[in-house]
Amino acid sequence: MFADRFTPLADFCTTMGIAPGDAGVSPPPMASGSWNPMKFLRRTLFVSLILLTLAALWLRWRNPGLLIHGLSALRWLAFAALWCLGLRLLMMAFEAGTKKLPWTRLLIPSVVLLEGIGLAWSGGVSPGWQRLRLLTAALMELALLGFAIHIWRQRLHDSKLLPEDELTPPFSNFLPPVAARLAALELVVVGDALRFLIGGYRRLDPAGHTYTKRCVLRALLVALPVLLLADLVALEFLLQNWPKLRWSVHLGDAYAVLWFTGLWASFRARPHQVSEHSVVLHHGILGRIELRRDQIVDITSPPTFKDDWARLADNRKVIQLQAPGPPLLDIQLSEPSRPVSFFGLGKPRSRVRIAVDDPEAFCRALGLTMR
Fold first, then answer.
1. 214 SS3 class
2. Which letter does DSSP use for residue 1 in this model?
3. Exposure string (b/e) for 279-299, b if CB count within 10 Å is 16 or more?
4. Is pLDDT at 19 greater than 50 in this prediction?
5. Which residues 6+ apart lie within 8 Å of 197 measured at CB?
6. Number of Cβ within a 10 Å radius of residue 304
7. Contact 272, 282 (CB under 8 A)
8. Radius of gyration, CA atoms only, the chain
9. Spatial CB neighbours of 264, under 8 Å, sequence gap ≥ 6
10. Is the distance from CB of 45 to CB of 87 less than 8 angstroms?
11. What is the mean pLDDT of the chain?
12. Which residue in 354, 356, 367 sits closest to 287, CA to CA?
């Protein structure tokens, strides 16, 4: 039964390309002198694309009319970026041919490459073609959303997997593992926020040890309407001559409110869980760790630090699953364990810092006394 409880972590490790047995220990060090040329080339192309993008933005801001050998410098940068993307696409095709990647992973890069070649070769597009491209991008976005809803509807009601862990494997057929996880998390956050706003806030929180009663995010959400009103008036006055920038900031504010609402909804929906054989510690959608109950050997209050530098140094040695506001507890483990963070599996640590509304009840559930 205990092995079944840990199937979500095993599935997550499989999705991210990590052996489940490595989830609790440090990966073996790479032998000195070993060198992977494909990995080096991938990183070089990635850094090159970032530098070319930054150079294009700087040139667009400082000197958009610069010509090199009769052609716009921006077009030269576009050709260089497309060359890097084409080389990366060839590498992906080679990896797909050797069964290291699914062939569907080449779909999105191929569309981007073809669209980029069309734009760079013609130097621009007519308004009709531009609208067609925007419509195509919107349809692809809606198709991705529909695909996520289809997967969500097929979800078993008694499934022990979290929604983002269920959405990540299908998305991994089209996106890199980290990007697939971020896309799944984004859909879960927005979906939780919308469900919370249309009545989900009336639902009772699941049983467990909560960390929301004194959470700072709770007070922030209450104060958001007043802050947004002041922000709206200030932006209308300060950016009245820049309507596009003004509306961009307004949309960004609305999205931030939606994201904070979804984060709060995940805090309420994911309390710490203590069962007979296992313990699952949560920090909303931002992170979690699954432990055996016998791994927990001691619970203490966090140490006091003489300055912020000492506190930051200690934070690097701890798995942090703490929401600001509630009391904090340091949990000492008998062996290092790896958390599931927002971007994937984190580094193994033997100490976990959590926030919990009732520390005494949490310690009693574990049969331990807090020192």
1. coil
2. -
3. bbbbbbbbbbbbbbeebbeeb
4. no
5. 261
6. 7
7. yes
8. 25
9. 196, 212, 215, 217, 218, 221, 284
10. yes
11. 79
12. 354
Among 144-148, 196-200, 277-281, which stretch is predicted with the lowest mean pLDDT? Answer: 144-148
Question: How many percent of the chain have pLDDT more than 90?
Answer: 3
Q: Which CA distances in Å does 119 have to 66, 75, 82, 278, 307?
A: 18, 9, 11, 55, 54
Strand partners, 319: 352
Amino acid letter, residue 7: T
**d(C-alpha 133, C-alpha 156), whole Å:** 37
Which of 112-116, 153-157, 190-194 holds the top average pLDDT? 190-194
pLDDT band at 30 (very low <50, low <70, confident <90, very high): very low
Tallying the residues shown for the chain, one arrives at 371
pLDDT tens figures, 91-122: 888 888 888 888 888 878 887 777 777 666 65
Helices (H), the chain: 2-5, 7-15, 37-62, 73-97, 107-122, 127-153, 163-171, 177-197, 216-238, 243-269, 308-315, 359-366
Identity of the residue numbered 47? V
Q: Are 326 and 359 in contact (CB under 8 A)?
A: no
Tokens 């055996």 -> residue: 292
Place of tokens 């307004």: 250
Q: Which residues of 235-270 are buried (b: 16+ CB within 10 A; e: fewer)?
A: beeebeeeeeebeebbeebeeebbebbbbbbbbbbb
What pTM, to 2 d.p., does this model score?
Answer: 0.72
Identify whether the C-beta of residue 325 lies closer than 8 Å to the C-beta of residue 216: yes
